[in-house]
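[job 4471] stage=fold_predict status=RUNNING
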Amino acid sequence: MVVPYREFFMALAHITGGQYVPMMNANLLAQMIIAGVREEISLDRVMNSSRKDIIKVIQKATSDGVDDQETAKRLQSVFISKKIQVNRMKNEAGVPSKEAEECYAKCADMADMQSKYKKTEPTSTTHVAAMDYGLQEEENVTVDQAKRILQKAKNWEIPTSQEGHQTERKSFT
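[job 4471] inference complete, writing structure tokens
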């Protein structure tokens, strides 16, 4: 049964900049795939067109010593101020938990994960019959989407200075 390991799968999705999408009804598989792909394509376009803004926000957040949550909020504010819109798949039951983001996703290896892991029951109030993976088009970037963009951007070569003369691969956690 997958449900007891929900937090583990959420942590994996968070680490990779993806999203956890629980599938409760196989009849919705096509809708889930299409909406998920369209959302990812729109996020990739934003990442490509806003790369300089994303780097600037990451550099400022790093120098300010803020966490990923605050960095994502800053990134979202930039996108909203520039009226950047994306597609978003409805996925209320897939919102990452605090444990998945703040504890499990920061484990160094599987042994560390195993020592901290607790089986949990889902806390979502979304009923299986109400599940919908429809696409919401031309929406503002959410904080969760900004977090995913931030996770993916952590693999970029980010200039260590504002001038950009030197670059290094740097983790921003």
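[job 4471] summary: Strands lie at 85-89, 135-140, 157-159, 167-169.
[job 4471] exit 0
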